Amino acid sequence: MSKQFLGETAPLVPPIYQSSVYTIPDLDALDAIMNDGEPGFIYARDAHPNAKRLGQLLAQAETAEWGVITSSGMAAISAIVLATVQQGQRILASNRLYGRTVQLFTQELGRFGVTTEYVDANDLVAVEIALQKKPRLLFVETMSNPLVRVVDIAALADLAHKHGCLLVVDNTFATPVLTRPMELGADFVMESLTKMIAGHSDVTLGFVGGNDADMLPAINTAVSIWGLASNPFDCWLAERGLATLDLRMRAACKNAEQLADWLAEQPGVLRVWYPSRDDHPDLAVAERVLDGGFGHMLCIELEGGRDAVNRFMHAAPGIPFSPSLGHSSTTLSHPATTSHRYTSPAERKRQGITDGLIRLSVGVEALEGIQAEMAKGLA
What is the CATH number of the domain that holds 43? Predict the structure, then answer.
């Protein structure tokens, strides 16, 4: 907005640049933007001010040199793959991933001649053996979806780089509040901003961050050509959420840790999965990788399987069944029928995703209220 309208004042809250296209004074200005990297915008699919600002803020939070905003978390993963992987190359991936990520790697990329192999990312010996096949990317989640298994990012980065492989880390469950994969040696970090970072279940966005300046044009090109671009209003909302991320994340982590210990003592709960607990297989790794909390996500397994889950949902409507995560209040999901619905029964069994498993995204409301509603469902 010109000074004609603003005078010497400026808005405290950044404006929303909803325009899909921008005016350009002449052809020389166009060339300067497109060829020489001069400041300016042309078409919102390529770039717009809200995405640029949000990308810079998130890059700073992740201690990355650059950041690019995409239309979703899956778009962020797709952009990285499109920018780095060629036909005939391989991807090595953790065997504990979000179900749609597995579908992308196996079902979709397989159609284009890209092979994906899966490995236990917590078994460093198995990872190094698999890396000898020279994959282009190693893809892991900081904390796995849904059973919050935590990987040693620094050790994986060392192994990947030893074998000429790029490490990509999905940091959605941890967020930059708990860990910053770029500081631990990752080549790319990605986030689903839809979740905890935006924080209010009203945004669908993703983020890619990196340090190699030579990769930035390839990521931007993939986002533009494949139509992975973001919406200005969603970027504006996500920036609002980012401003309170640290406060929300730490409050939710505190609730989750206390709730996990309380749930472990409740009848009808067969097991609790949370990284701070002594019975979690990755407690020692989590203490090294995570800083200031163990996350807002946890899982419980109910005695009685699917029927017990249904009874719980009907009895505890204050914990909504909402198959996403990161809302300001507590919600639940059922991995076997949502995030891992298209995973084979045998693979779900291997991972421990039973019909009685509930995934909780713990919010920032009073812990006593969460416990009271959970008690209704467990009763």
Answer: 3.40.640.10
pTM for the model: 0.96
**Amino acid found at 48:** H
Nearest to residue 71, comparing CAs of 233, 209, 230, 226? 230
> What is the span of the domain harbouring residue 304?
245-378
- Of 17, 96, 98, 271, the active-site residue reads 98
- The yes-or-no answer on residue 195 being catalytic is yes
As separate numbers, helices (DSSP H) first and strands (DSSP E) second, the chain gives: 15, 11
The reply to whether 273 and 374 lie within a common domain is yes
| Residue found under tokens 């807002």 | 296
Q: Which of 180, 195, 248, 271 is catalytic?
A: 195
Helix (H, G, I), strand (E, B), or coil: what is residue 343?
coil
Kindly state the helix (H) or strand (E) to which residue 205 belongs, with its residue range: none
Write down the catalytic residue from 17, 96, 170, 248: 170
The number of angstroms, rounded, from the C-alpha of 76 to the middle of its chain's C-alpha atoms is 9
Residue 371 lies in a domain: yes
Q: Is there a domain that residue 3 lies in?
A: no
247 alpha-carbon distance from chain centroid: 18
* Residue 376 annotated to the active site: no
What is the CATH number for 374? 3.90.1150.10
Q: Can you give the pLDDT of all 379 residues of the chain as single tens digits?
A: 455 667 788 899 999 999 999 999 999 999 999 998 899 999 999 999 999 999 999 999 999 999 999 999 999 999 999 999 999 999 999 999 999 999 999 999 999 999 999 999 999 999 999 999 999 999 999 999 999 999 999 999 999 999 999 999 999 999 999 999 999 999 999 999 999 999 999 999 999 999 999 999 999 999 999 999 999 999 999 999 999 999 999 999 999 999 999 999 999 999 999 999 999 999 999 999 999 899 999 999 999 999 999 999 999 999 999 999 999 999 999 999 998 888 888 988 888 899 999 999 999 999 999 999 999 999 9
Q: Look at residue 68 and tell me if it is in a domain.
A: yes
Catalytic residue among 22, 45, 120, 277: 45
